[in-house]
Recover the amino acids of this structure.
């Protein structure tokens, strides 16, 4: 009834001997004999002085910083220094196109001339009105208006002079 109970001892011996035969039939004997021992490098040691240094990442900032800022804006025509060279205080660094500043200077001078002419007319009007006020040919209001206009025109002359000076500095 129960025929398969285990392997017979003969079958077990045959299986083991077959596995030994199969593993023993490998042809690696010639390869093992042909392999040479690996080459080994040799280093001769000698004493040398050793410099010990440390490198650390970091940032530095200058003790003194010089900022170069223009006093006026415009188109740069020429650079008057060599990069990296020393410059002296007050030395011109760039030449800027003077066309717009020359025009502003000329316009300011024209405004000054006009303000001076208006002031002169106002002063002459006050001078002319003074005797007329005494004879009552003009009213006190007309005379006061002429005096105030003369003062305004004198102030306009001062403003025009300041504008001419500003335009001259920018030029």
């Amino acid at each position: 009834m129960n025929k398969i109970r285990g392997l017979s001892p003969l079958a077990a011996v045959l299986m083991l001997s077959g596995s030994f035969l199969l593993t023993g039939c490998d042809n690696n004997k010639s390869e093992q004999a042909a392999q040479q021992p690996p080459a080994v490098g040799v280093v001769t040691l000698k004493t040398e002085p050793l410099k010990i240094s440390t490198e650390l990442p970091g940032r530095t900032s200058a003790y003194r910083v010089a900022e170069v800022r223009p006093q006026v804006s415009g188109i740069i025509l020429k650079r008057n220094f060599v990069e990296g060279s020393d410059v002296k205080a007050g030395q011109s660094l760039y030449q800027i196109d003077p066309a717009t500043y020359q025009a502003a200077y000329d316009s300011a001078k024209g405004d000054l001339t006009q303000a001076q002419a208006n002031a002169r007319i106002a002063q002459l009007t006050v001078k002319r009105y003074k005797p007329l006020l005494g004879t009552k040919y003009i009213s006190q209001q007309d005379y006061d208006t002429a005096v105030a206009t003369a003062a305004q025109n004198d102030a306009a002359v001062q403003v025009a002079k300041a504008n001419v000076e500003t335009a001259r500095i920018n030029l």
Q: What stands out?
A: The mean pLDDT is 83. Residues 105-170 form a domain with the Helix Hairpins fold (CATH 1.10.287.470).
